[in-house]
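Lab notebook, bench 4. The sequencing result for the construct came back, and we need a structural model before the next group meeting so we can plan mutations. Quick request posted to the team channel:

Model the 3D structure of this chain.
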Amino acid sequence: MKNVIIYTDGACSFNPGPGGWGAVLMYGDKQKQISGFKENTTNNQMEMTAVINALNLLKEPCVVDLYSDSAYVVNAFLQNWVEDWQKHNWRTSGKKEVKNIPLWKELLALCNIHKITWHKVKGHADNEYNNLCDKLARGEVDKYLATHPQNSQID
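Done. Here's the predicted structure in token form:
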């Protein structure tokens, strides 16, 4: 299996509001940057969407080192939250329905294809690739706000 390194980040203005995501995929000496936008979303949804879109680009099962500054995404796997949610019919320990179930299910399907090692990185620090993903995600939001100024402030 190929070894791939992926960095991801999501951003959202007003949460919920316009959001963007960015990812950097690295394999050998190749690097690919991707990003996208959604008009009405949350920060956590954009964090998950970045991971899903990056993993969807892989054409075959891979060994993936995945780096994210999202405690929500990374801890869901490192602390077995996803496993517990599934055991309890997508309910939290507080008996509330887990948020973003369709995205979690999509992400879990991708986790069954690839061997993923999750890495939590500090956001807005000195990590070159995390900062690049943040720039890609924020850039998507900024592009939208530049063409939709009515959405750049809260009433």
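The CA atoms of residues 120 and 141 lie 23 Å apart.
Will bring this to the meeting.
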